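Q: What would this chain look like folded?
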Amino acid sequence: RGITFGEKSTAYATSAYILSTSALGLEKYNEAIKFGNVVLDYYKNNAINDSINISQIEYIVGRSYFASNNKDKALRHLTNAYNFFPHYMQNNNIIYTKILNELGLTYRELGDYSNAIQFIEKSINLKTELIGTDNLEYAVAMFNYSLCLSDCDKKNEALEYGEKASKLFYELKQESLYINSLVELARYYFEAD
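A: My prediction, written as structure tokens:
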């Protein structure tokens, strides 16, 4: 029989998975979506229930839709990523924190601030346990959280978390993020009670 590399082969799906992941990293979002959907179709058509890989590819496709400004499709795929992620791995996996954070950002963009805050809070709490509080991922999550709080007119809380994120950006020598956070902090100061 030999090795096949047709559209129905495992090698084809694996290649599409790698291409989707690479395309996301290169910010080639249309390609990430295209190859990600090839993998999802392969899993669906072959009744494969590999929840961790399905969750990861749903995350890649959802993140790519978010970056392409298609928030409804982003929400659908990120929700799938969240739902497929194995429960036994949720408390010890950094990928899960990224899914939570991205879902929060998507809900924020859609104006659902309650869900946005809920998911970003979960992401922050889990990141704190997994990787601590002195890293860029944590700082970005804190900054996103401050934006959501500001959107909900919780200006004083937004200011508190925004200041923490800004300080961490400075300490981590993330100049552009630090400057962006200072702009937001100025807005918070102006709008705070």
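The radius of gyration is 19 Å.
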